[in-house]
């Protein structure tokens, strides 16, 4: 197996520049999520990798085998790339086994390969069923088995769980990720679901308006976003303006340690401090220390079972949100002393 290398790729979809100078290397056996809002170029990038759209600039290769460059496109069927669409798109007149077998070369061992794939996706007992006798999750398993049948070098998954209900989607996507890793299949998952990308992928590529904003591990994307846009897109943020001084931002939550992202502020500059709500914590031990943290009163609580989001009014007249485990929650109206438990992120204040 070889790495998939996208080098400076630009792709036109219709009359739109859908992908603009994107470069990334997806390592053999890696599961990468391509994450972004609707219209950001995710599917166009997938279509270019599959050979269904040409590149205007740059190249796409698997190892030393070049698949796309301007004026040259290896046909989709000769790329060694599998595709799992958003809808299962099974042949309605074929059984489960026949749908899987559609992509299995004819010859000796074909029946054994079909049985192997059906067992692999947990459908060994359902091979004789018709597609209209399957649940949505079962149909997607058949589509996955069919895509894996020719042993592709790379598997592309275009929002394959989007049409499923929440409970089924959560369980199936975890099973699929485990299966792909066990098979050592290099995989690219397109999604607009931040939780899906962060929980499933080895690395995440964040696209915005055709540009690659950041490519890193889920932890890097969430904890160290490369821009304020990425910070907002991948999760909840608390934003406070404050004065930069020696690696700290003095704001309504006190003097908060921070890292400047993408610029070098001078002491006294006004910056935009961004925090994840779970970085803000109640610190009763600081109640007697006026210089540390900030006084607050719980205004409301949004309970979510495993955790809760609290809106807290600061004495400075601002409201901040904090996320905490849903055990021993304070009461609405209770006074707290809040502090920030890890360095925040400082960005330029928008003009």
Automatic annotation (TrEMBL):
**Residue stretches making up the ABC transporter domain:** 4-234
What GO CC terms are in its UniProt record?
ATP-binding cassette (ABC) transporter complex
Q: Which domain of life is it from?
A: Bacteria
Enzyme class name: translocase
Recite the UniProt keywords alphabetically. ATP-binding, Nucleotide-binding, Transport
The Swiss-Prot or TrEMBL record annotates one GO molecular function as:
ATP binding
Q: Which organism was this protein described from?
A: Microcella alkalica
PANTHER family in the record: SPERMIDINE/PUTRESCINE IMPORT ATP-BINDING PROTEIN POTA (PTHR42781), SPERMIDINE_PUTRESCINE IMPORT ATP-BINDING PROTEIN POTA (PTHR42781:SF4)
State the EC number(s).
7.6.2.9
Recorded hits in InterPro entries, A to Z, give: AAA+_ATPase, ABC_SmlMolc_Importer, ABC_transporter-like_ATP-bd, ABC_transporter-like_CS, Mo/tungstate-bd_C_term_dom, P-loop_NTPase, Transp-assoc_OB_typ2
Question: Know the name of this protein?
Answer: ABC-type quaternary amine transporter
